[in-house]
Automatic annotation (TrEMBL), chain A:
PANTHER family: 2-OXOISOVALERATE DEHYDROGENASE SUBUNIT BETA, MITOCHONDRIAL, 2-OXOISOVALERATE DEHYDROGENASE SUBUNIT BETA-RELATED. SMART domains: Transket_pyr. It comes from the Eukaryota. It catalyses: N(6)-[(R)-lipoyl]-L-lysyl-[protein] + 3-methyl-2-oxobutanoate + H(+) = N(6)-[(R)-S(8)-2-methylpropanoyldihydrolipoyl]-L-lysyl-[protein] + CO2. This is 3-methyl-2-oxobutanoate dehydrogenase (2-methylpropanoyl-transferring). Its cofactor is thiamine diphosphate. InterPro entries: THDP-binding, Transketo_C/PFOR_II, Transketolase-like_Pyr-bd, Transketolase_C. Coiled coil: none annotated. Its main location: mitochondrion. One of its GO terms (molecular function) is branched-chain 2-oxo acid dehydrogenase activity. It is an enzyme of class 1 (oxidoreductase). GO terms for biological process: branched-chain amino acid catabolic process; response to nutrient. Residues 40-215 form the Transketolase-like pyrimidine-binding domain.
TrEMBL record, chain B:
It comes from the Eukaryota. GO terms for molecular function: pyruvate dehydrogenase (acetyl-transferring) activity. This is Pyruvate dehydrogenase E1 component subunit alpha. Signal peptide: none annotated. It holds the Pfam family E1_dh. Its cofactor is thiamine diphosphate. Gene3D superfamilies: 3.40.50.970. Tetramer of 2 alpha and 2 beta subunits. InterPro entries: DH_E1, PDH_E1_Alpha_Subunit, Pyrv_DH_E1_asu_subgrp-y, THDP-binding. The pyruvate dehydrogenase complex catalyzes the overall conversion of pyruvate to acetyl-CoA and CO(2). It contains multiple copies of three enzymatic components: pyruvate dehydrogenase (E1), dihydrolipoamide acetyltransferase (E2) and lipoamide dehydrogenase (E3). It comes from Dipteronia sinensis. CDD domains: TPP_E1_PDC_ADC_BCADC. PANTHER family: PYRUVATE DEHYDROGENASE E1 COMPONENT SUBUNIT ALPHA, PYRUVATE DEHYDROGENASE E1 COMPONENT, ALPHA SUBUNIT BACTERIAL AND ORGANELLAR.
Amino acid sequence: MATGLTRFGRRMRWVPSVCNGRQFSTSFCDKDHNPPAKSFNLYTAINQALHIALETDSRAYVFGEDVGFGGVFRCTTGLADRFGKTRVFNTPLCEQGIVGFAIGLAAMGNRAIAEIQFADYIFPAFDQLVNEAAKFRYRSGNQFNCGGLTVRAPYGAVGHGALYHSQSPEAFFCHVPGLKVVIPRSPREAKGLLLSSIRDPNPVVFFEPKWLYRLSVEEVPEHDYMLPLSEAQVIREGSDITLVGWGAQLSIIEQACIDAEKEGISCELIDLKTLIPWDKETVEASVRKTGRLLISHEAPVTGGFGAEIAASIVERCFLRLEAPVARVCGLDTPFPLVFEPLYMPTKNKVLDSIKSTVNY
Amino acid sequence: MALSHLSSSSRSSTLLKPLTTSYLLRRPISTDSTPLTIETSVPFTSHQCEAPSRAVETSSKELLSFFRDMALMRRMEIAADSLYKAKLVRGFCHLYDGQEAVCIGMEAAITKKDAIITAYRDHCTFLGRGGTLLQVFSELMGRKDGCSKGKGGSMHFYKKDANFYGGHGIVGAQVPLGCGLAFAQKYSKDEAVTFALYGDGAANQGQLFEALNISALWDLPAILVCENNHYGMGTAEWRAAKSPSYYKRGDYVPGLKVDGMDALAVKQACKFAKEHALKNGPIILEMDTYRYHGHSMSDPGSTYRTRDEITGVRQERDPIERIRKLILSHDLATEKELKDIEKEMRKQVDDAIAQAKESPMPDPSELFSNVYVKGYGVEVIILSSYQLISILFFHDICYH
């Protein structure tokens, strides 16, 4: 349990692309005209998305622990003042209750946007998500659904979070047909993907990279826009190896790409964005081009979503692959206290793996 | 912490061994163990049971120990605050200052055979069970000499030889575990009980009611202690609970509301609860207490409550001040002697911090140990070049 993570530890210098406010090389879908955009950090972008969601749909609600006060990461600041306490409210500390309640609310045709304070605390609600939310439509023969449900939860490492404020539980939810799992990498992405998730007619679990809440800053259009779900994005083109990641890990991978480039290795970087149902085609097309694949995520390597990507791509591109699919992930240990730097799939680990895969 | 000697000389002698001798120094002022009877600050309020007497038996020795132990805890928590702000504490940090009387009073009524399980605000509970300051500060800083070898951090203190089952990170999750402990105690006819501590925030978790039903159904010697500090993080109790009378929320399970700022009342209630639990099964104790610090270190603790409220509690209800007044009014020690004790505690804390800072970081191989029992599960071994690199990298960080 903790309130806002204001201290981001020593690893800050390892993510210069976000620290410096530099952006990923390609940008969002709405490029035809130049809408007004200002620099915002990730939690402000989330906050904007929630404002828009409540503004544009009078049947949208935001709730969770301490949400009425702005939430521990300030994502819900100002919402209760603007939309009133009947639409933005605190819940007791009971995750199973929060999600069950949200499913019921959504089943009546509302948009229920529930916050779980940390992804580490989502497990009391696991049963509700897996057994109630995911299968509601299927088991009722499409009479009922909870498509208006979106569960937001901050996930991932922050440099000092230790065992219960650092975990990345996305793979558990990727094993559940009926749920969607979405993870943004930056403020602009977060706003567009969150609005899509809220408006998607399926229950979505939306994990927010808490390390980037304040660190990641980029231009975010102020208007209402959505980014498509289940569409991966090639954010860096290259020819020697395909790198796939999501969320906060992308900035780490991008750093490794830049270093690899100095050594003459051309990397193609893909942001998966939606983990299920995921965009196999984009990844496949890229691997067909490069012949090599590396996946990197913070969650432990065994049973991580990287395994699923690896298996699918081997199925589709077996004859085209020139090296085994590499996974640079968290170690198979609980998230450690002092050994976070060892546990994490750091830039150097990614770089090392890029080189060994290319030189296989 | 020399707590165990308070309850009975025959008990738990092993627990005193690891303690540094300075804790046990008997000052001339504190040797008197002639009984004293003191009335609790407010009457107990009971639910489905008859409340114990307000007259609590104590002694000059016990009161002075209460004072010394609470002063030590208070000082320790304030020091932990500074260490955190100096960025020496890893993980999260939740402080107990203000709530000391709950821990002290509970320890005075029970033995180390009884089990305690709590949530993440666990530093003082650990100290109360006989943990040392060195273990506390080393664990906070993730060092080898920590009580969990530097692998747990602030939220995960444990002490097996004193039946302290920790130190749990997920709100409310420790309470059903406590029922399991109580079942084992009952089954093996230990004549011991389990105190499962949780906060007013956790009191709204569903698993708490599952635990209550199970322990009542099987008459388990489980004592559910709700440390009601009135705020679940930033949420006042009445915002989160339809009925903030947590001692009544067991419905069919008896309950007692206790002034958790009065160590003697806590002692009386815990003694009563233990007898009740051994005979009749579970009981809820609601300790009306207060935390001076925010919920955790990143919560200033002042946005959802007024400064006046905090100052008011400090002036009117502070657990240490209450004992200080009792000692002075019964002429058991002078004001200067009490100040000297506080100074001594301060020194012990400073010395322990200095020592803890010298304690080495755990060996990097500890990252992979204790995930499974050796030979009984999947071994995590250093296989690939990435992991090797990460260790080299780690050394880079350490020695820079």
